[in-house]
Amino acid sequence: MTEKQKRYEALVHIYHSELFRFAYWLCRDQSVAEDLVQETFLRAWRALDSLQDQHAVKPWLLTILRRENARRFERKQFDYADVENETLVDERSTTLDAEMEQTVIQRQIGKLADEYREPLLLQVVMGCSGDEIAEILDLNKNTVMTRLFRARNQLKEALSSDDDQLRGASK
Amino acid sequence: MDELEFRRRILAEPSTIDKDLETFAEQDTEKHAFINDVRALDAEIHSALNVPVPENLAARIIENTYAAEEHRTEEQTAEEQTAEQPLDTIIEAKSRFAFKRLYLAAAASFLVAVSIFFVTNKQHTLYSVGEHAFAHLYHEIGSLDKHEAIDLAYVNKKFATIGGHLDELPGKVTYLTFCDFQGKKGLHLVFESDFGPMTVFIVPSDEQPFGTGAEDFSDERFAGHINRGERADTILIASIGAPLDSYNSMLNSAIRWLH
């Protein structure tokens, strides 16, 4: 195995899960997410020699993936209707309550506007710092912080109103 | 720092609560409660976003990348070779192609003749149910290795396009696709049972029946049964030793026709 292959395979093993989850939440479709991650890593392989700074790997991969996702909208839209909006439930959740709770919160995350959801995904799924998010999304850091605040605030409010409705229904 | 700034900073980055924030929240139970609330919310967000990653994704990515790369290199080499060829060999290559074209035309017309023979004979070459069903099953044998549940509502969305509805099955559906059964579009699904994965083919029974012969069939690995219905032929295939009859009646009572 060549040095390049070793380096590449290590990269895939480290980042594929995070990137898949990030892609899934961008497009809400498992097979599209898989394609996006595949395409991202294929492009990464072809450009691997140009990547000098090891610390820049994550933002670099994310930039490729976001560009691929944008290209998806430029191209003629394929018919993904069959699997659209499938909600993946983590099968590791053992209790029904936990599963229901998770589906509720997944739905609310799905309802967030893209401009709020994306910074949140970068922070939570990809573990990016405020500065990294600002760089990837080409925004200033204050804007990123405001969007993160609004994203969580909206989730918090939506979930507490869901709770109120549940309490109201059980009365 | 004021109250609003405090809340903004906590909600923006709950995992990095610095000294400023700690000092501000000190001795204030309400502010502490807020920090805890947001941290609990964040834990929920984390676990909700943590969707399962498809099995063997990393291995598949690597394999596909190398395959795509190999394919690209081959194409490039072919292109380079064509570009490098001097003019006289290109002319020679063209004439050789013209010669080959004759063979190609002969082969093509032979193929057409053979296809016509088979197409016109199709109505007479009826397979036995078992042959037909097993050929299909073995062709898509990977269908038995799936484990991820497919939502029944989604199954029904597909099934409705050929006019059917499934009430419920004795296990989760793990594979679902439309297939061509000798020219007829039918549903191919797999569900998990206590006796391993079971395969179901639902093929509309207008025009031509799904094979001929015995309703029960088996080979060394699987056993199957066909129910010849007015609307569709339903085939159930399970591993040898599974109680096929009881699953068969569960399957039949689960299927309804919409119109």
TrEMBL record, chain A:
The RNA polymerase sigma factor 70 region 4 type domain covers which part of the protein? 105-155
Source organism, top-level taxon: Bacteria
Ranges of residues in domain RNA polymerase sigma-70 region? 11-77
Q: Which UniProt keywords apply?
A: DNA-binding, Sigma factor, Transcription, Transcription regulation
The cross-references to Pfam families, in alphabetical order and at most eight, read: Sigma70_r2, Sigma70_r4_2
InterPro entries (alphabetical):
RNA_pol_sigma-70-like, RNA_pol_sigma-70_dom, RNA_pol_sigma70_ECF_CS, RNA_pol_sigma70_r2, RNA_pol_sigma70_r4_t2, RNA_pol_sigma_r2, RNA_pol_sigma_r3/r4-like, WH-like_DNA-bd_sf
* Family membership: Belongs to the sigma-70 factor family. ECF subfamily.
What is the name of this protein? Answer: RNA polymerase sigma factor
TrEMBL record, chain B:
Transmembrane ranges? 102-119
Its domain of life?
Bacteria
Keywords recorded for this protein, A-Z: Membrane, Transmembrane, Transmembrane helix
The entry's protein name is: DUF3379 family protein
Organism in which the protein naturally occurs: Pseudoalteromonas lipolytica
